[in-house]
Specification:
Length: about 450
């Protein structure tokens, strides 16, 4: 059977329909065309899938025949050649180098730091709530997740205004997308005004990151964190150290990938829990019974089943990395069609997680889907917020400690009440974020 094709009025309008609102686009096309279809766009063959078998085929079985898609090439203008954007042997070497920092025993130490940061943040938040109960939770989550990333990965405290950093990340993402939508303008990118803003944002990031590296080299202390790992790594063959530029690329990748996604997931979870106050109360009850003090230790966290379910359901409905893209490097067949070299394969995690063949009432918040007894009946590739295969998110376990920790502690301390008249729309930029920001009125429980 031929693969269904989405044709709009022309190549350009098909591309515009997709880029304009990738989330609704995927859900609508999935209903009309099924879980694998082609979109007619200029210059390239573009396929979109929400089929778990395709995710497995591309991310696991055929990962050597595919490379990362043009979106990641565009991201390189900001992230450089770090773990998310690099390829081949170089990527493998860097991944092996950094993996130990995310092993179970290392994570135990990191978890202690996450707890400290969360407890400090909660006390500070409580002070502020007593003066003004209306809180911008998107901003709070960015501030907290940014602080946790800097402290755990680089033993550093935030030294910049977090809302400024968040605005720079948002602008940079929008700029990367803007370039991606206009390949025909490539030769002119450096000449256009938005490039100046982009370069200024990157310079500020670089100043922050090179500052971290410089301080560490100057104080000479061994802290056994990721920054130490990167600074002291030596090439097995040549004995060469990593250049500052390469360290910068890895640091910026880990910092951005390591806090922006978690912050968005936390903001979405707050939004969902305000709409489902019975679940908010259940989380508070679980926390009360599960541990004393303001945050759970790692043993207690492991026993908090409800907050794990809420976290997993939030990542299902609003997966912060909503699309994974690959480009075919060596052609192969899929369902009787030849996927030619250069074809773009977009795997929509958002669509996968709302595929009605896999999930009953896919758009409904129902955390109990993730109760242990339902896990066995689900395909291993039906829930992939962290991707799959060798390029699986290196921070998946980190995030699955951080998000439940923050949610449990937050809902134990506060009751969150929605403000009237705001409607949240998830926006599918490079990552998925709630727009407008999630705001709430907080009451100390
Ligand atoms: C809810 C939180 C998170 C989500 C949803 C998420 C999602 C993902 C996904 C889907 C990928 C795979 C991309 C691909 O295959 O093209 C990925 C890769 C990656 N993530 Fe995460 N991530 C999260 C948190 C984190 C954290 C906390 C860190 C670091 C501390 C991190 C660092 C990375 C890095 C470095 C990669 C590239 C890995 C490689 O290719 O070797 N992420 N993430």
């Amino acid at each position: 059977m031929a693969i269904p094709v989405y044709r709009d009025r022309g190549y350009r309008s098909a591309a515009r329909a997709f880029f304009g609102d990738p989330l609704s686009f995927v859900i609508r096309r999935q209903e009309e065309l099924g879980d694998f279809f082609r979109v007619r766009i200029p210059f390239r063959r573009l396929y979109i899938s929400t089929d778990p078998a395709f995710f497995e085929e591309i991310l696991v079985q055929r990962q050597r025949q595919c490379r990362k898609s043009p979106a990641y090439h565009q991201m390189r203008i900001a992230l450089g050649n770090g773990l998310l954007t690099s390829e081949g042997d170089f990527w493998l070497r860097q991944r092996r180098l950094m993996q130990p920092a995310f092993h179970r025993t290392a994570l135990e130490k990191l978890y202690a730091v996450m707890r400290e940061e969360t407890a400090l943040w909660l006390d500070d938040l409580e002070d502020r709530v007593r003066r003004d109960p209306v809180v911008d939770l998107s901003r709070e989550m960015t501030r907290l997740a940014s602080g946790i990333a800097l402290k755990t990965l680089f033993s550093s405290s935030p030294r910049r205004d977090d809302s400024e950093v968040a605005a720079e990340i948002l602008r940079t993402q929008a700029y990367v997308l803007w370039r991606l939508e206009r390949p025909w303008l490539t030769p002119f990118f450096p000449l256009l005004a938005n490039n100046r803003v982009f370069r200024r944002d990157i310079r500020r990031f670089d100043d922050m990151v090179y500052g971290l590296i410089r301080d560490r080299r100057a104080d000479g202390a061994q802290r056994q964190d990721l920054l130490d790992l990167l600074i002291h790594a030596r090439d097995a063959d040549t004995g060469a150290a990593m250049t500052d530029r390469q360290i910068r690329d890895e640091v910026i990748t880990l910092y951005v990938a390591g806090h922006e996604t978690s912050a968005n997931a936390l903001a979405f979870a707050c939004h969902l829990l305000m709409q489902h106050p019975e679940w908010a109360d259940r989380l508070a009850g679980e926390a009360e019974q599960g541990y004393s003090g303001s945050t759970p230790d790692d043993q207690a966290l492991g026993r908090l089943d409800l907050v794990r379910q809420v976290t997993e359901e939030t990542l299902r409905l609003y997966p912060p990395a909503h699309i994974i893209g690959r480009e075919v490097a060596e052609p192969f067949d899929w369902k009787g069609d030849r996927l030619a070299k250069g074809s773009i394969l977009l795997m929509s995690i958002y669509g996968l997680h709302r595929n009605p063949a896999l999930w009953e009432d896919p758009h409904v918040f129902r955390p109990e889907r993730f109760a242990a007894e339902h896990a066995a009946v689900r395909s291993k590739f039906a829930w992939l917020p962290f991707g799959a295969g060798p390029r699986l998110c290196i921070g998946a376990r980190f995030a699955m400690l951080e998000i439940p920790l923050v949610l449990s502690a937050l809902f134990r301390r506060f009751r969150l009440l929605p403000l009237e008249g705001t409607v949240m729309q998830p926006a599918g930029l490079l990552t998925l974020k709630p727009l407008p920001a999630v705001e709430a009125r907080l009451e100390v429980r």
